[in-house]
Amino acid sequence: MSTDVTDKSPAAAPPGKGGSAAGAGLLRLMLGGLRRNMRQYGMLIALGLIVVLFQFWTGGDLLLPRNVSNLVLQNSYILILAIGMMLVIIAGHIDLSVGSITAFVGAFAAVLTVQHGMAWPLALMLCLLVGAAAGAVQGFLIAYLGIPSFIVTLAGMLLFRGLTEILLKGQTLGPFPNGLQKIGNGFLPEVGPNTNYHNLTLLLGIVLIAAVVWQEVRDRRRQQEFSLVVVPVRLFLLKLVALVAAILALTLLLASYDGAPIVLIILGALVGGYGYVMRNSVFGRHIYAIGGNLPAAKLSGVKDRRITFQVFLNMGVLAALAGLVVAARLNAASPKAGDGFELEAIASSFIGGASMSGGVGTVLGAIIGGLVLGVLNNGMNLLSVGTDWQQVIKGLALLAAVGFDVWNKRKSGS
């Protein structure tokens, strides 16, 4: 007598159903990974969509090699400020003085090099020291005297704007020496055979791709070693492919024009250095600690006053560097230079994922936020959108980013 046995194991399921079930499971897994990492990927996806939309609306003008190069040069000083501002906001503070310090340092550089004929490398070092001194004074008042950062930096904004007017006597001063000009307008030199591309830029792009892939794989392995939650493998591979494609596209665009701008190399070094510090150093972890939970950080032995002082000192140095870049870009120091830069840097940080309450944000996020604003500005200029509507659109973008942060917190809390 035979017995009819039905195999109910997954292997016995019809191929169509099994394949669809596996596909649905993979889709749920990837969507879950996206939801868990929405803060990390949300603005990156938004940046990609904005680029695609403006590339279509401008008839392909947005991603012309010349325009991409100009986009880097025009937004480099805002991105430099955004890096420092992100650290300030993560620590739970704000800095309204960076635009005025930027203008003051540019004016100081002009007085040293144009009026007094000082060698530009020495003038550059003195300008960075002036920025460090400005940040140190403000940091001391905030960290050790307990004056709120909003008040101190608001006073600094007025003070340094006035000093800029006094230093320049209300006039524009220039031009700068050629060496200093190259910081804001120069490109890497051409080397090697004629390949119709800028060879040094291609080489740097290949090195950057290798470094990014290595860093991403290394970070994932370290997270797994400490039993931390990591994104699914396919989502991780998709992220790697997207990063490599973006770097490769930018490399080819720049290499087909005049090559990589010098300021892009400076910016890349800052992003890599500050990204490493915030991820792997004690200093970076302490910044997150005092911004996330100051009482707990104090109980854990974090020297919050010293960290706050160092954060504002660092912001002063980066503001001075941005001042040199913008002055070199304009080839002159102007009393009106830096107007609104502090708002652009703050907006870049919040759009890039910083939280009003502190303790949240990344250096890469600040760069993404700055690029979102930069692409919006550049695309709207190409479309001849008036400055009035540009302000409206950028305000809505900032409001949407902060609103998304609030919504994401409430959803996570529930």
Please provide the ordered H/E string of secondary-structure elements. Answer: HHHHHHHHHHHHHHHH
Our estimate of the beta-strand percent is under 5%
Spatial separation of the terminal alpha carbons: 60 Å
Structural class: mainly alpha
The number of strands is 0
Unreliable spans: 1-15
Largest sheet features: none
Q: Quick one: overall form?
A: globular
How many whole angstroms does the radius of gyration measure? Answer: 24 Å
In DSSP terms, counting alpha (H) and pi (I) runs of 4 or more, how many helices?
A: 16
Mean pLDDT: 86
Provide a short characterization of the protein structure.
The protein is an all-alpha fold.
Q: Keywords, please?
A:
414 residues; disordered N terminus; 16 helices; globular; mainly alpha
Please characterize this protein's 3D structure.
With 414 residues, this protein is mostly helical. It contains 16 helices and no strands. Helix 3 crosses helix 15. The longest helix is centred in the middle third of the chain and has 27 residues. 37% of the residues are buried.
Layout of secondary structure:
Blueprint: H1 15-36, H2 38-57, H3 65-90, H4 98-115, H5 120-143, H6 149-168, H7 178-185, H8 199-225, H9 233-255, H10 262-280, H11 282-292, H12 294-299, H13 304-330, H14 341-351, H15 363-382, H16 387-413
